[in-house]
Amino acid sequence: MIETLRVGLQGRAYDVLIGPGLIDAAAAHIKPLLKRPVAAIVMDDTVSGLHSPRLIGALEAAGVTAHAIVIRPGEETKSWAGLEDVCERLLALGLERGDLVIAFGGGVVGDLAGFAAAIYKRGIDFVQIPTTLLSQVDSSVGGKTAIDSPHGKNLIGAFHQPRLVLADLGMLDTLPAREMVCGYAEVIKYGLLGDAAFFDWLEADGPEVVARAPEALARAVGRSIAMKAEIVALDEKEAGPRALLNLGHTFGHALESETGFGEALKHGEAVGIGCAMAFRFSAALGLCPGQDAVRAERAIAAAGLPTRLADLSAHPFKADALIAHMAQDKKAEGGALTFILARRIGEAFVAKSVDPAPLRDFLIAEGALA
Ligand code: GLY
Fold first, then answer.
1. Do domains 3-174 and 181-365 have the same CATH topology?
2. Which is catalytic among the residues 67, 78, 236, 246?
3. What is the mean pLDDT of the chain?
4. What is the dihedral of CA 109, 114, 116, 117, to 10 degrees?
């Protein structure tokens, strides 16, 4: 069954389709968006090898010329050089403003191809076809596009909404187990930040989602995207509630920065431990019942995600080094720390000007070095 959700942005509303087999049906959904039957598909070597014959075959069978732009896998391509490469290849293909870019892959490809589409000939339409759980439930929806700078991750970018998102659940069949677990961190994040009933269900059935049981997976992806669509429609440019989607990200980014944004700690894993820490920090500040922090931690750990600093190979961390990274977070204002904290499971809020002194005490209590 295919579920259709709408991201209700005025003038730029778009559908997110969720279900199996969407790749094979892609032409029927994409063709109506085209002024002439031409598209460029940006994907990495891995996705190209696994899935591109199906997507290109489906488009070409419907008379759409589908050019492949294949890039190297990995975060390194989300760079100025990677952006230049994609834009120059689009120019060499002669893509016109009325043509379409298709971002076919995980978060790296979505961010890079989306940003290229945002600036190519001052903006060209693009479609997201996310192939990882993390990109299906989070990064493919909402129009955040970016590359990294030597100064930090995602610092150069634009809001550029896709015209359509096709979240084909069949793509997840070939996803490595570690990537499933990473995507699940973002799924549980939605329950923790705004839907206690969804969290209750994940507490019981989360392992089914990670094991890719079709019904559980469809329910988890559907609810996650519905929450994201609702929040993005309320606050496209993150002036308010969209910041809640960063639950776990302030702690998580600091840990990712310390571990070099690589295989040692993947983004989803950082979100998992970050959510657990955000709940424990909320409890330590007396904002949230300790029992909710325990439940959050248990459910995150049950999926195989780290929840404690001691779970990470780079442990021990220096408290001041972590705080220095937090001060560089995009949410920081005038150097003051902003966190997403919680009153209870299902009720997160934006906490501005968080005092670094209790934060330092908390990090040391968590095992960081003074
Ligand atoms: N990943 C957070 C957001 O899209 O706002």
1. no
2. 246
3. 96
4. 140
CB-CB contact of 143 with 114 (8 Å): yes
pLDDT digit string (tens) for 318-360? 999 999 999 887 767 777 889 999 999 999 999 998 999 999 9
The residue extents of the domains of the chain are 3-174, 181-365
| Residue 348: φ, ψ to 5° | -95, 160
Q: Per CATH, which fold does 3-174 belong to?
A: Rossmann fold (3.40.50)
Closest CA to 64 of 74, 72, 55: 55
CA separation for the pair 163, 13 (Å, rounded): 8
Residue 249 falls in the annotated catalytic set: yes
Q: What is the CATH number of domain 181-365?
A: 1.20.1090.10
Please give the model's pTM, rounded to 2 decimal places.
Answer: 0.95
Q: What is the CA radius of gyration of the chain?
A: 20
Higher pLDDT, 149 or 231: 231
Compute, in angstroms, the gap from residue 246 CA to the centroid of ligand 1.
7
